Amino acid sequence: MLLGTAGGPSIKKARAQPSNALIVNGEVYVIDTGNGVARQMALAGIDAKKLRAVFITHNHSDHMADYGTLLLRAASSGLKNTVHTFGPPPLSMMNKAYMAFADWDVQLRVRDEAKPELADRVKVREIFQDGVIYQDENVKVTAFEVPHGAASPSYGYRFDTPHKSILFSGDTTKSDNLIKHAQGVDILVHEIVSVHGAEAIGERIDPGNKELVRHIVEAHTKPDEVGEVATAANVGKLVLTHFVPTGLPKFDNPQAWIDSVRQTYAGEIVVGEDLMAIE
Fold first, then answer.
1. Hey, which residues does 28 pair with through a beta bridge?
2. Which of 33, 39, 88, 91 is CA-nearest to residue 63?
3. Domain at 2-271: CATH architecture
4. pLDDT classification of 124: cutoffs 50, 70, 90
5. Beta strand ranges found along 14-161 (DSSP E)
6. What's the predicted TM-score (pTM) here?
7. Predicted local confidence at residue 197, as pLDDT
8. At what angle do helices 210-218 and 195-205 cross, to 10 degrees?
């Protein structure tokens, strides 16, 4: 389930900030927690009590702004089990800081509503290298580092389930390491940036800021490169997400995205939308 498909930290009307939910046998695994993720889960009909694990690709705010809010909202919605969370440093510090921030509310509900301690139900593991980081009866999750400009380290995640394999690129430039880990996956969920669209959105957000445009273009994957990645990895289906720009009809429309990738990838292309279910 694509919960949020926008790219970048600015406030947007057209799409929600980055987040995805993988649902296997009714259990929920969330990849990135951009602003509004808990609300998007509710709109998608996803039961927060079923949250098993959270995977943060990197620490840009559009990917983890509502990390703590998701955990608190899930706990308030009847969550009983331990939630395992994963991501690059300083995830442990951020988790601790959020627990301190929420402590007044949590302790009040412990006393007044017999709620369990939130911190006791969250197990954090920071990622420092490629490899299998989590496995249960539903999924095996492999983390692998990807290049994302100054936001280092950044990771993508491959999920192997009894039914299918799904890989989430996170934010990345064209990556040989991603291609290696994506070999033969059924579904590749990959970010995408339009160069001309990035220039247009840069002028709208912060006119004259060439460094902003440079970052957008140099730290993300251009359409022809996305197609090259999907072709090299021989993926079954390519799902586009994290659209830059978001909400400019000239650039952010399904046919424009498909046409820009088709020149280098002949397989199935899905232009992601918020709350879109992918099977």
1. 23, 51
2. 33
3. 4-Layer Sandwich (3.60)
4. very high
5. 19-24, 27-33, 51-55, 83-87, 122-126, 131-135, 140-146, 154-160
6. 0.97
7. 86
8. 150
> In percent, how much of the chain has pLDDT > 70?
100
pLDDT score at 166:
99
Q: Pull the structure tokens for residue 257.
A: 């995205």
> Do 220 and 244 touch, CB atoms closer than 8 A?
yes
Residues shown for the chain: 279
Beta-bridge partners for 241? 191
Enumerate helices (H) and strands (E) in the chain, giving the number of each. Answer: 9, 13
Edge-to-edge strand order for the sheet containing 2-4? 2-4, 19-24, 27-33, 51-55, 83-87, 122-126
Mapped onto helix, strand or coil, the DSSP state of residue 29 is strand
- The rounded mean pLDDT for the chain is 96
| Model confidence at 205: pLDDT above 90 | no
CB of 168 closer than 8 Å to CB of 189: yes
3-state secondary structure (DSSP) of residue 172: coil
Separation between Cα atoms, residue 138 and residue 119, nearest integer Å:
25
Rounded Cα gap, residues 230 and 237, in angstroms: 8
CA distance 279 to 41: 17
pLDDT at 98 exceeding the cut of 90: yes
